[in-house]
Design brief:
Length: 406
Amino acid sequence: MKAFTLPDLGEGLAESEIITWHVDIGDVVTLDQVILTVETAKATVDVPAPYSGTITSRHGNEGDIINIGSLLVEIDEHANVTTTHAVTNTASSETAQSPTSSRSQASSKNDKPNSPAVTKDAATVVGNVSQASHNINIDEYWVGSEKSHDEKVVITALPSARVLAQKLGIDLHHIQGSGPDGVILDCDIHQASDQQRPGTEMLRGARRSMAASMAKAHQQIAAVTITEEAILSTWATNEDITTRLVQAIVVACKKEPALNAWFDPDTMTRCVHSMVNIGVAVDSQYGLYVPVIRHADEFHAEDIREWINDTVAGIKARKIGREQLQHGTITLTNFGAIAGIYATPVVSPPQVAIVGAGRIIKKLIMDNGKPKEVNALPLSMTFDHRACTGGEAARFMKALVSALES
């Protein structure tokens, strides 16, 4: 019997949300077969089986938030297709009598969490988890049992879960841990909190990531917002607004590259990019996603529209990879497609600028001494004043408006 825990899926992210289970208890899986899909940092990741065998246990439900090292499944490598059903039927009565019998038997052979057998069985998507991932610092303490003063009940919980339970007012006595040997994890506390307070929800997936990144931006960035308007008198009636904005940002980045950059406050260094990778903010029912159109300066108008359509479809289906959300050098948010004229968009570090487009409005201008009604596109750009001067931001905005008005 081998235990498979949630591996580190990259970028040092500590938690993931279970989106879909592709296997159930009793299913026979093969090496590298996808067993579940999780979401982390706004990206969905398919997790493959580390070895072949029969699924004997499955831990966590769809929608649960789980931490790295949490037990996902246990796989019996010795079971096969012809014996799976027989084993399941004969074991059902035993399971009813003792739900943790198989786990207890396994633990009796390896009482020490650092034993070689445990280390060998701890596999991840890319190999074996380090021994440290199973050396979990579990907080154990005894409480009196309601049945008898002579009996004691042991509660095992991660220290972080105990602290979280205290903050949320959750009684650990009523929590069934989902970790190895019933260890109470942070996700168990979150789930109990959701059930305890109707009408509230725990932020998950893209919304949870957005909350963390916005807090980081608020703490770190010296944000300044500059606004302007582009007069669209030369536009055709069927202009693709987002495509034109992407093209105009490319032009502005070429003329004033200081806004197409990354800034590292720890080393006080700025990296000005030659390529233009534009993150395009996309609103969805699952939260805010910012996929990146890489080398946007090499795209034609029809290519940009095709990329937008394909990407939005992928987000709606929750099929967007982590690599599609990386390496942006500047961001566009077209909030005016919904509502709003001006805004103060939030820069996402290490980027130094974000361009926002508001709702197109009607304006009266003087044309050869006569009033004329025109369409105007409100523009708002927030920039990190640590990395960019006001003059650089103003020149960028001027180039952006000029490209839109041409």
